[in-house]
Amino acid sequence: KVPSIHHFYEDSFPVGVAVEPEQLEGIEGRIVDKHYNSIVAENVMKPISLQPEEGKFNWGPADKIVEFAEKNHMDLRFHTLVWHNQVPDWFFKDKDGNEMVDETDPKQREKNKKLLLKRLETHIKKVVKRYRDEVDAWDVVNEVIDPYASNDRGLRESKWYQITGTDYIKVAFETTRKYAGEDAKLYINDYNTNESPKREYLYDLVKEMLDQGVPIDGVGHQTHINVAWPSVESIRESIELFSSLGLDNQITELDMSVYPYPPSGEYKSYEEIPQEILDLQGQRYQEIFDLFEEMDDQISNVTLWGVADDKTWLDDRFNDQEVPGKDAPMPFDPNYNVKPAYWGIVDLLWLF
Ligand code: G3I
Fold it and tell me: What value of ipTM does the predicted structure carry?
């Protein structure tokens, strides 16, 4: 019997976890229920899952997560209304089935833009109306900044951008506000928000949008980090930067790879990961949660991106290795036992 993570932070913020619906049963379900008081779908609320074909909505898997949250009195984060990834192709095809991005005729391009924005509005309207009473925080747009983009504003050159400019961002926030209501909390979510020049590009975009009256309430900092990067200070600076715009902050996808970048995948099983790396990870989790706690007036949710080390998106990076490497970013090991990362999060690492 170990202490519950979310109880430890009950005076500061809810602590959440990303799940697939299958993880809400058995031992994983018990971990989720005991240790977390906020939840988010790892995949099943993305457009490709919710509306794989135009007008055909697939609510079942997402509903399961909503029901679990209700039953267990958990907060619910919605991830995500708009992304360049995991979005079905039909969004970006014109009525004749041609790729909108290939269109050269200005009149037809204008028509395409209208059609795409209409589809976006329809998607958001349907989804938001269904879940508005249960959702506490909406990731409205995800990863719209790309510091390596060919434009000078760091705007990701996704199909959304190529067809609509930044209008998709405005329309997404405005439509979400319209159907979710004034009290809904709307976030712009991204990774490496602590890193220059990305955070400055994000800052400039958000400021411009706020000046235009676009309803953004906060920044979601994904926080996919590793045992060597980034510094705790750079995370602090980024939270302060966005707070200075009057915005809320949420830590939306926290996990900590055991590999410095670029990941080598040299450990082929959990057992091969040196104890000193797992201990270091525990210390880093402790320092980072100390920071979040200290800044709890500026951070309203901290969510971990996964349940245990048996299943993590980080392992996908090693799929092409002959013997794929193993990562271990979570507080629970592949057998669902607590590990130093857990003890760091609940501030009891000193016991060991
Ligand atoms: O659903 C299909 C299944 O039908 C098929 O059999 C299987 C075979 O590979 O693939 C399944 O889709 C996978 C999907 O997860 C659902 O499991 C995709 O291949 C896989 O690429 C996808 O990965 C997800 C990834 O987003 C997609 O880019 C990860 O689970 C998910 O953790 C990750 O989450 C993202 C956040 O949304 C945004 N921030 C970064 C974060 C990590 O990449």
Answer: 0.96
